[in-house]
Each structure stands twice: as C-alpha cells, then as structure tokens.
Write a structure and sequence with these properties.
Strand content of chain B: under 5%
Number of domains of chain C: 3
Shape of chain C: elongated
Number of domains of chain B: 2
Strand order of the largest sheet of chain B: 1-2
CATH topology of the largest domain in chain B: Cytochrome C Oxidase, Chain A
CATH architecture of the largest domain in chain B: Up-down Bundle
Strand order of the largest sheet of chain C: 3-2-1-5-8
CATH superfamily of the largest domain in chain B: Cytochrome c oxidase-like, subunit I domain
Largest interface: B-C, 91 and 89 residues
Largest sheet of chain B: 2 strands, antiparallel
CATH superfamily of the largest domain in chain C: Cupredoxins -  blue copper proteins
Order of helices and strands of chain C: HHHEEEEEEEEEEHHHHH
Distance between the termini of chain B: 79 Å
Distance between the termini of chain C: 73 Å
CATH architecture of the largest domain in chain C: Sandwich
CATH class of the largest domain in chain C: Mainly Beta
Oligomer: heterotrimer
Shape of chain B: globular
Radius of gyration of chain B: 27 Å
Structural class of chain C: alpha+beta
Chains: A mainly alpha, B mainly alpha, C alpha+beta
Structural class of chain B: mainly alpha
Strand content of chain C: 15-25%
Helix content of chain C: 40-55%
CATH topology of the largest domain in chain C: Immunoglobulin-like
Helix content of chain B: 55-70%
Number of helices of chain C: 8
Number of strands of chain B: 4
Chain lengths: 125, 843, 340
Amino acid sequence: MLGALQRNSLLAMVSGLLLWTLYFLFNYAFLSLGCALGFAEIQVAGLSLVHWVILAVTPLVLLAMVYLAWRSWQQYRELGEAEAEPELVRRQRFMALVAVMIHGLAVIALCWVAAPVLMGIPPCL
Amino acid sequence: MMGGEHPGQGAPEASRAEQLHRRFEKIWGTPPGLAQLSVVNHSNVSRRFIITGFVFFLLGGLQAMLLRTHLARPNNDFLDHEVYNQLFTMHGTTMMFLFAVPVLEGIAFYLLPKMIGSRDMLYPRLSAYGYWCYLFGGILLYSSFVVGSVPDAGWFMYVPLASSEYTPGLNSDFWLLGITFVEISAVSAGIELVATILKARAPGMGVNRMPLFAWYMLVTGFMIILGFPPLILGSILLELERAFGWPFFMVGQGGDPLLWQHLFWLFGHPEVYIIFLPAAGIVTMAVATFARHPVVGYSWVVLAVVATGFISFMIWVHHMYTVGLPQVAQGFFSAASMGVAIPSGIQVFVWIATLWLGRAQMRVPMLFLMGFLFIFVLGGLTGVMLALASFDWQVHDTHFVVAHLHYVLIGGMLFPFFAGLYYWLPLMSGREYSELFGRLAFWLLFIGFNITFLPMHLIGMLGMTRRTYTYPEGLGWEIINLISTVGGFLMAAGVAAFVMDLYLHYRFGQRATANGWGAGTLEWSLRHPAPSYNFISLPQIRDRYPLWQNPKLPQELAQGQGFLADPGRGERETLGTSMLDAKPEYVVRLPRNTYLPLLLALATALLFVGLLIKQYWLVPMAAVLMVAGVWCWLWDRGIKQAPLVVDAGQGLTLPLQYSHPRGPGWWAMGLSILADLSLYGSLLFGYLFLWTVAPAWPPPDFGALPWLVPSLGLGGLILSSVAMGWAGRQLRVGSLPRLRLGYGLAILLALAYGVSQVLLLRDAPYGPQQHAYGAILHALVGCHLLHVGLVVLMACFILARSAYGYVVSDKPMEVTNVSLFWHYVVLQCLVGYVALHLLPLLM
Amino acid sequence: MNRTLAQWAGQARWRGAWGWLWLVALTGCRGEQSMLNTHSPTAQAIEGLWWWMFYGAAAVLVVVMSLAFYAIYRQPERRGAISATKFVLAGGVLLPVAALTPLLVFGLGVGYRAYLIDPEALTVDVIAHRFWWEVRYPGASPGDTLVTANELRIPAGQQVRVRLHSEDVIHSFWVPSLAGKLDVIPGRVNQLQLQAQTPGIFRGQCAEFCGALHAHMEFYVIALEPEQFQRWRQRQARGGRAPEREALKQGQQAFMAQGCGDCHRIRGSEAQGSGGPDLTHVASRYSLGLGRTGRITVDDFENWIVSKEHLLQPQAEMPAYDQLAPEELRSIALYLESLQ
C-alpha cells in the first residue's frame, strides 16, 4: 500500500522531506525548550539529556527515510516491467523515481542537521 | 497577411480559423473605455501586474540612485539622515513587495494557462481583485510621501524601533497596513496558482509531462500560501500594539522583540525563494528553447524545486545568527542553510548539461541568461559563506550582506525577468524587439551591476555597516563607495536602454513570425499577439514538448480539432482535469467581465484607510460592504440554468464544475484553509514562544481562566460540527427542510460558543493591554470569534441560497465547501481551547 | 561577429574576477574596522574560514562558468560526450556534499570555540543607548563602579567578558578586529568574550539600525598592557577633583547653569545626571564623537557641544545649547578639557 501511495500521491512522494521538516522542527524546539526551561542542563554520562534524545531520534528518522527510498526504488523497478496502460505507468514511474531522489536528499539534509549534536557541542552555549 | 501571424495555411482553413477566432473574441474580449475596469481574464490582469510592477521598479530604482549619490562621498549632505532612512526603507520595501513578487506573479499568470493548455486561470475575478488590492495597497504605502510620514525603520521593521515608543508617527502604520493590503494579492495568487496547475491542465498532461515552469509555480504557490501568513500575523500584532497598546513585543509587559524577528523571517526567508523560483522557472523554459534541446534531467529539476520549497522554510534563523541563540541551534540552521545550496546546484548543472547537449543560439534572452548564471552563482556562493554562523557574525548587517542580496536578487530575479520579457515579447505584443538596444541594455546592466556590487563585498568586510546614512573618512571606504555609485549610474543607463527598446518595439517593431524561436511548449502555438481566450480548441497532450512532437499542432488547434472548440454556448469555458494524469473531469464555466472585484477592492481599501487614520467607525462599515460584495460575488448567476452535462468536443461529454464534489471552489476553500492554518499556527507559536522564552513570564494567575462556560461553549461547537455533517447527508437524500434544520441548529450552537468566548474575555485575569499574556489571549479568542462569525455568515448564505432553489442534491459543491470550513473552524477552536486552558495545567 | 564579441565578453568576465583580486591587494585589508585586521583568536579563526571559502568559491565559479562557456561555444561535433545524469549528480550533489561537509564541521568548531567564556574573566557591562555606549566596570567594593562611555579599555592577552544590555531598542556590539558581533536586545543580557592578543586600539560600531544617529554610534576597544590597564582603572575610579583655576570654576558653573548636569554625571561634583555619558574623565578618552580621536582639544569639545549629532540625542530636552554665547561655550569646553 505504501508503494501504491508513493506513485499515486504527491504527498507521499514528498514524505521524505516532510519527515525531515518535522525532525528539524523537533530538534530546534526541543533544544530551545531545554535551554529556556532548564532541562537541557540535566547530564547523563557527560552528555546533555537534549543530546541523548536527539541522538536517539535521529537514526529512527534516518531509517524511515531509507525505507521510504527503498520502497520507492522497488516501485520504480516493478513498474519498469509493467505492460498495460503505458501512459499511466510512465507517470507512476516518474513519481516513484522522484520519490527516491527526494528521500535521498532528505537523508543528506538529515545528516547535516545532526552534525552539531554529533560533534557534542554543549546545548545552551 | 492578416493581423496576427498564423503558421502558414491555405485559404479555407485560414477563414475557418478566423471565424472561430472572431467568435471566441466576442465571448472573451473586452470593449474599450471604462469597461477596462471590469476585465477579469488572465492576459489582461497579468499585464497590469507586470506594468504596475515595473513602474514600482523604476520608483525603487530612483530611490536607490538617490542613496548611491549620497553615499558617493563621506559625510555628504546631499540627503539628511531622516530622508536617507526613509529612502532605504522604501527602496527595500518597494523592490521586495511591490516589484519582485507581483511582477513574477504577472508573468506566471500570463504564461501558465497558455503553457498548460487552459483558457484562463481558475479564479479570474480573484486575480482581478488581487490586482486592485496590490495597486491600492501600493498607493496607500506611497501616500506616506504625500503626508510626510514615510516608513523609516528599515524594510524589516524591527521592534522596538518600529513600535509606537520610538516611531510615534504614522510611518510604521503606513508600512504595516499598506503591505498587508498588498499581501492579500499574493496569497490569493498562491491559491489560484496551485488550483489552476493541479486542475486545469490539458488532457493527457500528466504531472510527468507538464512544463517545468508549472512545477516551479506549483511549489511557489504552496510556499506563498504557507509563507505569507506569518508576516500578516506579525503585522496585525504590531499594529494592535501600536494602535491599542497590546504589548506583544514590549519587554516591560511580557512581550519580546524577538517574536517579531521570528515571525518576520519565517516569512522573509521563503519570500526570497518565492522570488527566485519563478525566475529559475523562466530560465529553465528559455534554456530549452535556446539550446534547441529538451531540458535534460526533468526529474532532477522536480527534485530541486520540491527540495527548495521544503528546506527554505527551515532556515529562517540564519537572519538572526547574532541574536544570541544557542550554538547548537545556530548549527541546525547552518546545516540546513547549506543544504538549500544543493537544489540550486542541481539546477545549475541541469542548465549547463542542457546547453552542452544542445546547440545554443546567442540571442538577447540568452545573454541575460548567461549574465544570470554568473551573477546568481556568485551570489549563491556568498550565500553559502553566510550560511555558516561563525562567518556571519562578522559580516551580518554589513555591506557584504547588501552585496550578497543584490547578487542573488538582481542576478536571480531581475536578469531572468529581462530574459523572459525578451523571450516572450513576440508572443505578448506580436512584435520583434531591437537586437541592438537589447544587447546595449544587457551590457550596461551587467557591467554596471558588477561594478556597483562586487567591490561592495569588500567594504562590508572593511567594516562598513548597513543602513548608515553616512560614513567617516579614513576607514578605507571612500573609493569603493564612489566606484559603486558610478556603477549604479551605468545600471540606470541600462534600464533606460531597456525602456527605450520596449517603447521602440511597440512603435516600430517588425511583426513577429509565429514561434520564431522554434520553441516546443504550448504557449507558442497561439497567434501572436496571444488572444484573450488563448486556444481555439484545447489539445490532447502526448509529450513534454507538444510543438516539437507535432509541429502541425498550432494549425490543428486553430481549426477546432481539439476540445471545447464550439463557442456556440456563448460561455467562457475551459477543462477541469484530474490532478495527476489530467484526465478530463468537468467543464469549468468561468465568469465574464464584472466590476465586482474593483468594488470589493475599494471596500477593502476603505477598511485599511479607516485603520490607518484611526477612524475606526469606518471599519465595520467597510466590513459590511465587503460582506455584501462577497455575497453578490458568490451568488453566481446561471447555476440553476446550467445544464448537467455539456459536449466538450472530440466525443467527450462532461458535467459542469458545480456537479463535481471537488470542483474549483473546493480547491479554493481547501487552499484557503491551508493559509489560515499557517496564520493560526503562527499565532499559536507566538503564544508558546512568549510563554517559554519572553522575560516576565509566566505572569501571576497565568492559565487561571474560567473553565465552565468556555467548556460548555466548546462542547456545543463540537456538536454543531455533528449537526453540519448530518445536514450535509440530508442534502444527498434531497431533504431540504432537514438540511435547513441542521444548519439552524449548527448556527445557534456556534452563536452560543461566541457568547461563551466573550464571557471568557470578560472574566479573564488580564486585559489585553496589561500583559502580553492578556494580549495573546485576546488575540487567540478574537481569532476564534472572527472565524466563527465568518462561518456563520457562510451558513446563512447557504440558507438564503436554499430559499431560492440553488441548493440541490446533484450540485453539492456549496454545501461541501461550507462543511469543510465549518469543521476546520471547530478544530481550530478546539486546539485553541487546549492551548489556553489545558496546557498551562501541565506546567 | 557575434561569436567574437561574445568570446571577448566571456574573457571580460575573467578580467572582472581578476580585477577584484587586484583591488583587494591594492586597498589592502588593513582598514581600522576591517574584519581582516585580526587581533584575537576568534577573529583569526573567522578570517581563516573566510580565505578557505573565498578560494573554494572562486574555484567553483571558474569551473561553472568554464563549463557553461564550453557547453555553448565549443562546436557541437567536437564537444565531449556527457551522461546527463552523471553530470548533474556529480556537479549538483557530490560536489556540494564533498565541499560543504568539512566546511560545516570546521565552521561549527570555530563558532563553538568563540563562545567558550572563561568564568574567571574580567566582566564589563556595556549598556547601549541611543546613540552612545555606556561602559561599567565592577568596582573594588560593592557600589563602587567605574563608568565611562564609548570606549572599552581591556587588559591585553586575557579574556574579557562583556555583558550587553539595552534599555531602548536593539543595537549590536561589533568590534571586527576582535570578535563577531552580538546584538544588544532589551530584556536579555547577551555575553561575548573579547581577547586582544596584543595592545592596540580597535574601532567598533553599532551594527543594528537603531534610528537617526545609528551611523555615528562608534566606540573603541583599547587593549593595554595589564599593568597599564590597572593604573588606568585606578585613575578612572577616582572621582573628579574640584577645579582650582578661576577659568575652570567658571566653566563648571556654566556647565551646571546650562543644565548639562541633568544628563551628564561628573563624579565628585554636583552634576549627577543619568541620561547621557559619564563625563568624569572625559578628556582622557581616546575619542569624542564626530570622528575625533587622539588628544582631545578644547576646540573639539566646543565643536561637539554645538554639533547636530549632540543636539539630536533624544534625551535632550534642554533648549538650544547650539546658541550659547561664545565665551560661555569656551569656558565649558575648557572645564571639560580639564577632566583628565
């Protein structure tokens, strides 16, 4: 069903970047609240609580994006063998391909956004 | 040859084409004289956007020349500080709000229907209303010169400088009200762009086949819908603060100046991509034509455009790196701001690859495209530098940024704008321009621009800050300022050469041959100049470049071998098709000329003027006039007499849009809700931001709101949603009395909710002027009340319509739309309740 | 003919790029307020970042324009073949990722180090006004604060923490030779660290538009040898002495009679105003508005008092001190010049 969505729904096609947007907003809001309300000062094993949470969330979102990309790529391959309704198939294949590219770019953007946390920069400096 | 060129054809076909052309002109054309004020079709309205925008460009350019003349020497007395501050504020405001966005809207409105195979945009009256709002808003803003209270706090109007304590006069109010007025036209354009691109494409033009410009404008449309409301909200809040003392941004009473910055830049960053994307779309279309090769990497471009749309919303804080935010937060934004460079890079390499695989012809548009490439890439590279927070700490608010922004805006918008004008001029006016003047204009502009702005990077790094009306000697800034001024005059000469070329081409230009460029996209199939109805018949699309795939297409369409070739019904019609594959779904009846948009805009102007001059009794009066105007607007003639199905040509029979549950009206409603969501979301953000970050929060008695009456009111409102849903189902089984009952019940429950909210405000612990908490509370509740009032009015409209037999089960569109908005309003009030009553309990 | 013209034009673009480098060399980067005139670890780190980015960006621009020219002007039969997908992937994705990832990491590191503030550092409070800077040093004992204006003297070779306050609009504290800028926002206290490696005089300026005289809101950071700094601090902490010479006494009386004391404070005298800069040791300052730096003379004081910049200070409610009688003006200026 996810596959069908990604070739027939513009929203699903851009879902990788939508996920990235939510991830970004979560990081920024959580960090800002942590510094404003003080819970960013809570340290666990030398690292701020805020960092731990972000470090936990990041691979989950990354995995979701990779999964989306993989499913779209599968769709793209399967549609390549379809014989009926060439016009429809071409359009669906196009959307599957664009979806793969979008999810791929979202992965790159996610890694960059995670950089300050990965580098261990203190949260409220 | 007859007026307007047609691809060569024999006599009998020519006369059939001529006959059809005359019949369509009768339906779509406009008589001369005063009736010009009633025009709604996209070709006319878009030309007005372009011409008015260009006039503002000249005004903004004049302001720039005055600034540059003054800055040529240190400690100059050509201008005084007051005038200088007004001029730089108006220069930025004019260029950003009154030139860049409207002019590109105009180009998009002109081209899109022609490119996607439609006769018009989907909401012609809305386009016209948008134009008048733009014109009147611009006039309102410029009337500040007449009164001597010109805005002078910078185009981004930071508080506290722009607030009433430090700008006591009307200056800031002119800006806030004038610009909000203009923004109505932007948001309505955004809604129209998305709906038209998704629903009005020619049959067969699936999303994988539509011209790339349509993809650019689709993303831009969404960006406008989501990106403008934060500024609209910010402007409303600041005006409330200035006029009534609601302290959203005043530190002493729980406000925070940073809230303004967030709201402004949440708009401000997407704004520059709203400006860049249409221009990049022009480049993409023109490159294909001038390289005589299809754009390579169609999917890459779609990726780049969509990615730009998303990422550009998440980088606004890079305008605020020096505000004192945590390093990690600045790091997030540095990362994302670098990320947005990737889609731009993708587009650059797509363009180069297209040229590489093609055979470029260096005509004037191509010159401007090459100029664009150099200037925009350079500007993009300094942009990547600025993306890094640590570097930005040195060059923020210096002339380095001024240089950067002019490189990306002039390079990324103005040069493509000129390229597009020169490219599409034969289509727009039917005449050729002068190569000589065109080249002269290009070289003067290109050389002048680089002389003005390239050295400016250096004085920024030498320490010259922005918005300083003068500078001392001895810091190394004198020579470069002088050089920049000289460059500025060269640029002005370039603009003059362009204006000359435009004038000469209208007076003396040769008649243009049809599709002289040999381009492949649909707009070139029309006669030159393009007629008001665009296509005599609409094509079936089988390729991304229909004219390259079938060079005979123009003749075939002109002789009526496509859809909707029969003007016999005497109506303005185009096709509504499915979103992804463009399968024909219904025929859209479009409105003919009407004065309503102008009248409604005049009523709107009255409202804004009333707010400006603080004669608040004018406001409800104007509101009543506006409601009356919208009422007439929606009371569409003919829906009762409209046939259920029509013959769309080529063996196709289709219903009209009224019978379709998801017609253009539904899309307009849905997209408006999206804009409203953005506005409400920004207000919620303001509340949460002030609560957590502003000094002097939480105030005593925070969250101690009366709960019984508001909870009852909300409960009733939720029930009203149920009533509405039930009423909608009654329509389907054709039971009008039950529908009216459901509506009546819903209206009563909504009114009860309204009363409960008024009581809430009466009993709240803070008035709106005492503390920012009181102000936000009143703003949120006021927002709910406005929405409830609006939706009750809509429901009354439906009741009135049902009394006249307009509400029938096989034309469900109106009832569906009102239900949609009703449920949205209930949802909004529910979320507001949670935020105001429940969230504080958690803390 | 078109071809040659365009080829020449293409070369002109190259010339443009070289021309700018030459201009850089010519003007030099040694301006008094230049971010490339670095005197602190932070400023040097940012300068390093700049040069890496500059050469990288120049290289990218050259590559992109060369490719574009090649794509247009090389005869189609003789052009190399490219795979569109690989070309776009390489240039549009791989190149940016390869170039920007290290830049991001490096840049984040520079930012992080700039904000490591030594908790033991000398802390100075700077309060931004429209349109001057109030500088307050912690006193030896509580309640004993040294207050000066428009200049910040610091000991060289050690970190100094600057706390930024505003009671009116948003300003921005920027001394390029030593650090990036930091905004001064009402309701917040932002903190910056400055560390001048060697003694020197560094010019700074308000960098956030704050109204009419924003352009004139400059200040100086003066780094002294640590012992010199201590001596300066002790001298400044002393209140003013009552004037002994007759001319100066008259000057002081005129100063009070004209209401100057309502805005200006001179410790040890009756002038205890608070709307404007503290003038206790005004004549020992390095600068006095209007770009006057170095040894400040009586003429400088006169010119300043009647200048429109002085008149436009928003707190001024007193009438026309631009219409003082010349003798009175002279005598006030003499008095002020005595306040070393």
